[in-house]
Amino acid sequence: MEKLRYERPLIKRMEGEMPNKFGSKSENKPLTHIDGVAVKELLSEYGSPLFVLSEKTIRNTFRRAHKAFSMRYPKMQFAWSYKTNYLDAVCSIYHQEGAWAEVVSGFEYDKALSIGVDGKHIIFNGPDKTAEDLEKAIQNDSLIHIDHLDELYTIIELIEKLEKRPRVAIRVNMDTGVYPIWDRFGFNYENGQAWDALNKIMASGKMDLVGLHCHIGTYMLSTKAYGIAAAKLTDLALGLRRRYNHEIKYIDLGGGFPSRNTLKGAYLPALDTSPSFEDFAEAISSALLNAEYPPDSLPLLILETGRALVDEAGFLLGTVISNKRSSTGKRTTIVDIGINLLFTSFWYEHKISPAQEFSSYTEETTMYGPLCMNIDVIRESAMMPLLNKGDHFVIHHVGAYNMTQWMQFITLRPNVVLIDIDGNTHVIRRNETMSEFKNMEHLPEHLKNFEL
Amino acid sequence: MKIRSNIAVSASGLIFNPDTGESFTVNPMGAEIISFLKEGLGQEKISLQITQKYNVEPSAFEKDFEDFMGLLRNYTLLDDE
Ligand SMILES: Cc1ncc(COP(=O)(O)O)c(C=O)c1O
What is the DSSP string of B3-28? Predict the structure, then answer.
């Protein structure tokens, strides 16, 4: 006779509440399949933990976002923010959808070239472009977004040497009514730094000033801030037209739209509070269309949206190691996923779903990783069903930043699998191995022997 | 190790402690264990019953059982003499 599924015994004190009312329900339904592929089979084939990406969700989200903007504004272009997720397969999906590449380092720049993006379609951001990086970007006719004056002077020096006209923009920072202001990067709008840089570029006569760029923050919940940013960059663009009779080709408003993850400490789930792509598109397109651009020279709108495009397409699958009770009596569950793999657990309350059916009973649970460190907390407090050792679970919305900011700490990084449109699975980054890890190390001769 | 005799357990898993006025809910596994405890069964017998019926290792059940008993004791639902 087949034995019944076991659930551990649970008793809960009722504190003025009716049993089974909304608040005591688990936050999740079980998630047994991703795009039709069984979680259980994914884990048995590729091991636990495991990152899984849905090509379908990537493409659908991209198309939804693109439609929201292109319906409201005639010229728009996405540039995929490499730092958000620079796995070759992920970037290639965005490039197939038509996105350019947005990179912030020589490493990311080379990665974009290596998968076949031509230099002309690479936007090069960031404060740390070396002279070699800049030289390469100039040779390849990339869009160089100048971050500070030192970089501007390096470019001017390189122009003499290379005898080429680089295509440049400046990064502008500004007060959009959202605080703290992200003013570390670029030239400030309000205090005149931005104009100073623009005047220097125009005076040099050696560069094509093609765009104006800003990136006003990340996980921005205010659509108004984007309207203000678009208006301030527009003010610079129209000023350049008046002063130099110079036409700016594009306005790049960077990234920063929120994903559907819930921020720590937020009162309501993100779905209830985050503006949609349509809301942002409305604010931005109104600001641009209502400005005094001559109708035949509206600038191209570029967006470097990262997390809002990819977060939902990523899942992290794991296994319960053990259940315990803390010294204060609180239920704790230890799982095989630590903050080394889930960097975003620092700021998100990630939704976690069991990967198998469970009863309606839940317990307030702290989810810990296996890192033997106090900070290794995946969820401080989650209403979780009664997971047993060996049970599987799925962490939602991990597509952004985790596969770039992950850390190699006490274990090796796991496989990353893509489920394609037809439900086929592909390992797009295989798990790290001890030997390739050791390959990077060198043990000096005099340390090779010891006796214990 | 018995549930105190004046503790009322309803069929739907509601528990009422008349001494403190507190109410509790249990899940079906908790209710099953409490009914065994009410019958006076000890840990070994309960473990045998549960592990025969459900898909759980005795060692894993023992750990959960002790944890559960700790909570019952904490909520002063046990007759510990
Ligand atoms: C210059 C730039 N563009 C785009 C992005 C992507 O931002 P997000 O993921 O918030 O959309 C970033 C992220 O920090 C950035 O620095």
Answer: E-TT-EE-TTSEEEETTTTEEEEE-H
Are A111 and A215 within one domain?
A: yes
Distance, CA of A91 to CA of A89 (rounded, Å) = 6
B70·A325 Cβ contact <8 A? yes
CA distance A10 to chain B (A): 5
Kindly report the pTM of this predicted structure: 0.89
Residues of B in contact with A7 (CB under 8 A): 27-29
| CB of residue A344 inside a 6 A radius of ligand 1 | no
Q: Tens of pLDDT along A173-230? A: 999 998 888 888 999 999 999 999 999 999 999 999 999 999 999 999 999 999 999 9
ipTM: 0.95
Residues of A in contact with B50 (CB under 8 A): 6
Are A24 and A363 contacting, i.e. CB atoms less than 8 angstroms apart? no
Cis peptide bond prior to A166, omega within 30° of 0: no
Pairwise CB contact (< 8 Å): B60 & A389: yes
Do A326 and A251 fall into the same domain? no
CB contact burial A188-204 (16+ within 10 A = b; e otherwise): bbeeebbbebbebbeee
Q: Does the CB atom of residue A173 touch ligand 1 within 6 A? A: no
CATH number for A425: 2.40.37.10
